[in-house]
Protein: Diacylglyceryl-N,N,N-trimethylhomoserine synthesis
Amino acid sequence: MGRGGEKVMPEVTLVRRNSWSFGKGLSDLKDDLSTLRHLWFSQLSKKKSEDHATRLEQFYGPQAAAYDKFRSNFLWGRRPMLAAAAARLRDRSDMVYVDLGGGTPPTPLPPPQKENIDMMSEYIPLDRFKAVYVVDLCHSLCEQAKAKVAAKGWTNVHVVEGDACAFTPPEGEATLVTFSYSLSMIPPFIDAIDNAVSWLAPDGLLAVSDFFVSARYDVPMRQMTWARRFFWRSVFDIDNIDIGPERRQYLETKLEGSIPYVPYLRAPFYVWIGRPWGDAAKQLVHEQRVEAPPLFPPTFLYTQSWEDPEPDMEVMDINPTDTVLTLTSGGCNALNLLLHGAGRVVSVDCNPAQSSLLELKRAAIRHLPYDDVWKMFGEGRHPDIERVFERQLAPFLSQKAIDFWSTRLWYFQKGLYYQGGMGKLCWVLQTLATAVGLGGAVRRLLGARDLEEQRRVWNGLALVRFVKHGPQLLVWLFGRLLALLLFNRLVLWFGGGVPCKQYKLIVDDGVPIEHYIGRTMDGVAENSHLATRNYAYFSCLTGTFTRDNCPSYLTPEGFARLQGGLIDRLTISSGFFQDELAARIYSCRKCPLRQRNAPKPARPPPDEDAAASLAAALARQVRPGGIVIWRSASLRPPYAKQIAAAGFDVRCLQRATDGYMDRINMYSSFYMAVRKDKRA
Structure:
């Protein structure tokens, strides 16, 4: 509960920390064994006191000097907790910080063996705090802490031997309150939390990191087996440490790590940052509502959106009263919708990795300067990505996105646009082009000064001349070979994101897949200047964008407008399109009518039934005058009639048989449907 009884919002969880070193000296090993002896065996020989302060002294007194060094090996949540808090307070000054159950905070050990106050000084200079209070009930630990504060010469750090359930800062309120692995050791934990939030500033933060076990029935992300719950709770219970779910049932998520000298088991822990409820909380709750569907590849398919946004904007005529639902894909077009004035953009994808990519873009736009965002998403590389991620991005990501990116930061070292299914395909094609002697031709194509020069280079390529003017039999055999090796269903799905049903639509039109790809490439080369106008294919061929040829969110003007407040209009959801469609009423919608995002019951219905279900949902959720647009691999998609029958005025805006369509040029048709007035 917050001040005046208001709830505290669970805001974020952070990355897990699993690394620790066995390369210790004999002295360190001796200290660790001494600590373990007190952890595991001291309770057998001592009579337990009913007084909590006495119990703490009995437990920590004999090991106070060595305990900090030992526990730094397995308290993985402290650093992400402090990084998350600091990221939200980095522009503040004259703050009051209270660490409840702080033990021995400022030990002068080398990284990573630092305690809370030392660690916080890495993120925020301590002189920005008017006062820092370290509160602990154990006398021996407080004496150790006082000695360390004196050794550091910190005049604004105060060690208080007292009860976390009763302490009040002299200033009357605190900007930051932390429970770092202490809440599980406070029996009346509700009193401790209530006391802390009673003097938490209205714009303050309460941060917790601790061990835990899940409830018997918990959200899937936190659920543990019976054996695991029993094992960890009984192990910690020996030392009067209660890690039951009641302390964190209102917290968002958990993280895992290993514990010293028990290397094959994992002790779960969580990090939680709370603040008084606000409007932003409503969006966060919705974003976490949809569980990520299973059985997806371990990474994203698209590093960028693969639909040209310019024709969309011409058709949709977006204004601030519009709510738009779109597929996430690479996220570029969702951000473009914001820049074109949408009042709310809901971006959904059933691949959770695509949502994690857009989450990272959103966090970067909110919290990084333009140069850092350009390095990450313009150049696809950032030399200091680990520091930037820990301090400025991870504190504002969902657990799903943290789990994804914490093991994939190397994407920004090897090149973001060579990762994922489509990125790997681009890398393979570039490698093949170089291997067969086409590397120079690609460079000439990209270096063409204008469209006319680009056409001359393109039509001068030996491969293009052969395909366009060579013997028909040889061209047919060559095309069949390409279809078998590079344009088969497996490569197109995992490399190009073309699902099998979309592939079937192409075949049903009687177009061989090699002709379909050739039509796409030839149209782009003949009609769209790659170096200045077509950032999508330029990125595929180079692994980067240029400042004057990039998605709108990467332009200085677009970035400034998004960071200035437009980015707050974005909702990101991992789930199925039709589930998100049913969640609200829309006025504009970019509709994925290519069957890949239709609902997936246990036994998939026929395509006609799935399309009819989606058409009916569109009729319910689109207000009169609302627009639905879609692109299809089919020249005449069969489901267009079903949408028309559901109450829409449907018309085809473009077909590939009429010539070049847009800068992507990869679809056979482009449709728009306008919801008729229900009274008509």
Q: What stands out?
A: The first strand starts at residue 8 and ends at 12. Residues 441 and 580 are 45 Å apart (CA to CA). DSSP finds 30 helices and 15 strands in the chain.
